[in-house]
Amino acid sequence: MPAAAEQGLTGAEVRERIEAGRANDVPRRSSRSVPEIVRANVLTRFNALIGSLLVLVLIFGQWQDALFGLIIVANSAIGTVQELRAKRTLDRLAVIGETPVRVRRDGAVREVAQQEIVLDDLIVLGPGDRIVVDGGVVSSDGLEVDESLLTGEADAVRKPPGEQVRSGGFVVAGGGAFTAAKVGRDAYAARLVEEASRFSLAHSELMAGINAFLKYVTWLIVPAAVLLFATQFSSAGNASDAVVGAVAGVVTMVPEGLVLMTSIAFAVGVVRLGRRRCLVQELPAIEGLARVDVLCVDKTGTLTEPGMDLADVVVLGDGLPAREALAALAASDPDPNATMRAVLDGLPAPAEPWAATGTVPFSSARKWSGAEFGGRGCWVLGAADVLLRPDDPARRRARELGAGGLRVLALARVPDGSFGDPDRLDVAATAEPAALAVLRQRLRPEAAPTLRYFAGQGVAVKVISGDDPVSVGAIARALDLNGAGHPVDARTLPGDPAAMADVLEANSVFGRVGPQQKQAMVRALRSKGHTVAMTGDGVNDVLALKDADLGVAMGSGSGATRAVAQVVLLDNGFATLPHVVAEGRRVLGNIERVANLFLTKTVYSIILVVLVGLVNVRFPFLPRHLTLISSLTIGVPAFFLALAPNAERARPGFVPRVLRFAVPAGIACGGATFAGYYLATERPTGDFADDSTTASIALFVLTLWVLALIARPWNLWRLGLVAAMGTAFAVVLGVPPLRRFFALQTGQTRNDAVALAIAIAAAVLLTVALRYVPDLTARLRARAGRLRALAVRLGRRTP
Q: Residue 184 contacts by C-beta under 8 Å, 6 or more apart in sequence?
């Protein structure tokens, strides 16, 4: 590389390029922009529908019946404010979690933000560095780049000088430098960064279920509106009352707050985790957190702290300068990892400097690194079971040390000229053992209680490491991990995914796992129906993180891991994971409660519309009645329930489970309310205001009981919430101005008592049905299954 290129750009050249607009000015896209947030929360299908109905009521009815229009304001305002809060949190966390880039300027290497890179900058690369702009390689020291994010090919690509590197790749071995040729929106990074860090609502089982509900309701709205208008015009005799009655029925069918509450719960979850220094890069990751039942963790950086200490150097013979070679090997590494830093800190430099004439960087595929020192020979440092022959006593000694939880590496000398083609070097056959480097790993103090938490929550933890399985097993035993007494060497795992999955389910600790094997192990676990989360901090974890249901990266890990993970632990705290899982479960459990409320309202609205159409009577409610009842039994309670603590474990089958509650609850509410209303209309002394008050009391009592059922298990605040809603309705009935505002009357005591009795009876029947019908259905299904199995067996025996 020319001397001028080695110096990089000067400060004046950098300023000149910034002024010319040739900087890497890719906007951070950790969330939607403010205009996008406003548009997304205001210009919605349901705001348009409710807005149209609002206009009809304002034209044909009274303004008090247009109170449901406040839903538009509430939906839009709450959703916008909540997402703006989440945006601020995410933008702040995105800056913290963004990987700095090393550039050489004025002859010195310095770290700059990605946005500060300019055209022609000389960017320095080391293992784990993410490539954020495009350019040509000008120097290479065994530089190998993984471009799987671009090409889908997992094999690392060698990058000698003159080769091109593109943003989206990351360094897996070696080092080097390249000149930035495409920056900003001209580079691949402009698209990849957006996709990697966008605040999004991607596909999820929860959102798919809610969208299915909304789709079916939308199909029902048009025929329901036509039916209601026809019956209301026939019974009321004028268009104004017909329009108001039809609007009252249709508005109630729309579960307008369900999507809002889901988005709020997701967004609040993101903000809460953000306060714990946990960056959630996609909103549906919150749902994934709740469903996880297998957690795969890498030992280094997760169970142990990144740093290590050199505990001992066991010299294997007096014929080789083992300590000097080990110190020189560490000193020759331009970008030392944790192992090399421990050696550098633990050994003095050789009295006479050893000049490296060639190096081979460490790679997870080779599991060793090396350097050639002119007349002092070629030396390699790596795993003992890779460098040493199976019958070598030093290998047995390394295993004994590793069984105590120590990390043991072997130092050996190989024949001169061995590094011409390092991938074909048979080190075990040619190496002359020199020493064992014994390293003590630092256990994370929070690792043991975190593992106990997952065990108590039914989440299986699998330790997947590239280290010796005996050493990994010792670490896992020290942390009381279930199954740690039987570590498995991943090199013995079967290649068949089904057979591999069986081994994975039966064991907890795996050593000598390669990058492709980590990926295969995650896929095998998922093939068994598990929801798999993968944690990691190194480039060898990227492939597995990409294939897991939920990728969790450590904040101090490589930029590549942070780019592909859905969750980043910015403070590297393994103890944050229990809070992450608990937050996911809180959100998912609460959304199911809220969905039960909204779908119950939709079902009883449909029942009322059908019964009104069949009997051809006036719709029992004005829009203001339903606004009052929905606000007290759904709107206000849903907000509190969506954000409440909830430690329930996530279960599959969201849609069937919600329907099993909402359908019988809606039928009970709609049927009992209509029965009370119809009996009231049979008395010639009453008017519509009396009859609709009777119906309102019946519906409120039933829906308040539905709220109480959904709020289980009961505690003080939940019972207080139900009581507060009942008190609020009683206040409306008892205060004359409020009663007149909501068009309620309390003179028909007999009708009200009959309707109340019907509602109480329906509440009892509903409670019994929800308690015993599912059990009876399950027993009948089990019996039917046994009968089918018996029939099959009898059929096989029939000649």
A: 22, 23, 24, 25, 26, 190
Neighbours of 486 (CB within 10 A): 11
pLDDT of 191 over the 60 cut? no
Express each pLDDT in 524-579 by its tens digit: 999 998 999 998 876 667 778 888 888 888 876 666 677 678 888 887 778 888 88
- Token pair listed for 486: 């039987």
Q: Distance (Å, rounded) from C-alpha 99 to C-alpha 634?
A: 45
Residue type, 595: A
The owner of tokens 């059929």 is 795
Rounded-to-integer distance, Cα 568 and Cα 562, Å? 6
Residue 551 one-letter amino acid = G
Residue 782: HSE in the Cβ half-sphere, 13 Å Cα cutoff = 6
Helix 45-60 and helix 256-275, axial crossing angle in degrees, nearest 10: 130
DSSP 8-state secondary structure symbol assigned to residue 632 = I
Instruction: Convert the pLDDT of each residue in 349-404 to its tens digit.
Output: 887 889 888 888 877 677 888 999 988 889 999 988 889 988 889 999 998 888 87
CA dist., res. 483 & res. 476, Å (int): 9
Question: Nearest CA to 216 among 603, 614, 664?
Answer: 603
Q: Among all chains, which residue has been given the structure tokens 């006479």? A: 352
Retrieve residue 708's tokens.
């109480």
Share of the chain above pLDDT 70, in %: 83
Extended beta strands in 47-205, E state: 101-105, 108-112, 122-125, 134-146, 157-158, 164-165, 170-182
Give the integer Cα–Cα distance in Å for 439 and 380: 17
Contact 650, 584 (CB under 8 A): yes
Q: How far apart are CA 678 and CA 758, in angstroms?
A: 12
Say how far apart CA 546 and CA 360 lie, in whole Å. Answer: 28
Find the catalytic residue in 134, 146, 298, 468: 298
pLDDT tens digit string along 264-298? Answer: 777 777 778 878 888 776 666 777 778 889 999 98
Is 545 in contact with 537 (CB distance < 8 Å)?
no
CA atoms of 394 and 384, how far apart (whole Å): 8
Identify the DSSP state of 495.
Answer: S
298 labelled catalytic: yes
Enter the tokens of residue 258.
């369900």
DSSP label of 184? G
Distance set, CA 308 to CA 127, 189, 236, 284 (Å): 18, 34, 83, 36
The token duo for 4 is 């001028």
Residue with tokens 């309202």: 601
Distance CA 599, CA 605 (A): 10
pLDDT tens for 754-782 read 889 999 999 999 998 888 766 655 565 66
The pLDDT of residue 61 is above 90: no
